[in-house]
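Protein in question passed on here:
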Amino acid sequence: MKRLFPLVPLLLLAPVASAAPRVWAHDGYTRAVFDLPRVTTATTSVKGQTVTVKLGLSLPAAAGKLTVRGLSAYSVSGDTVTLTLTAGFAGARVEVLPAAGGQPARLVIDALRAGTPPAPAAAPKPAAAVTRPASTAKVMRPRVVLDPGHGGNDPGMQSRWVQEAAVNLDVALRVRRELQAHGVDVVMTRETDRHLHPNKALDLDARSRLAKTDEAAAFISIHVNASTNPAAHGVETYYFGQPMPGRSRSLAIQENGGGSIGQQLTQQATNSAQNLLGDLLAQAKLSFSRQLAEKVQANLVKATGALNRGVLTDAFYVIRNPTTPAILIEIGFGSNPVEGAKLSQEAYRERIAVAIARAILDFLNTR
């Protein structure tokens, strides 16, 4: 049940240029990933705080500020990609990855903290230069935040088959196990049946703050849906954006907690939504949130055979901050006699968890 509170409508954002990078920070380096139309050569030079990569092809022009640790700006002009390093960072590792697993070819640039061993120099070639850290270097792992919705004083939806908070937690723990098996660092907003704060607004704010950290590559909130119509069924995945047509302001307030708290959070959302307009980096992160949502939704439908209710947009409080790709997943209707019964089964929840984890791994380019 979507109790993570949709906000007021955000004005439709402009399309994002494909040259905008995915960016996230790790211990020792910060990674920027640019999609490419095909595999190509890449020649790198570093002068001062500027990393310049010359490609064997041209990309659409793009430029913008970056707020992640280690990088302050990027620009793309023809065959040249430029990143500006912040203080404390020096040098870069660069490789070009071929298309694989539904992902296009990618240019991967790791901005290195000062003192991080550089990779051995390699002649440019279409299949990416070898750019691994020295064997004595600390192994770097991408980090994902998993948010099992509800918990503690908020059990979420409840039916004769399931309690939402318990199902959310079980699935999230299974996703964590699968991700960790592939070398991903996982942060859980909760690991037991608890709330982060007895006040619902502060509880949601504590969860959403974890999506703002530059240490996280993605934020995934897991939920069980519900409806007064017992025939409603299927899976759907959301990313932050303009609510779909037909959603009324009264529904937004109700899902924001109803009454005075719903009014308060809706007003707060109105103010924060306006601040996103014209923010190119925010638009880029929303674009990557959509990509993650599409991968998760496709995997869930394939793994479960559930009705595909689509990838949707709405302004949920917990995924409102676009500095990290963030999505909210509704893994099925606990109020439906068939789907609710399935969600009560461990084997079915395992299929859901594996589908979510593999979509995340695909998004992170992690095997």
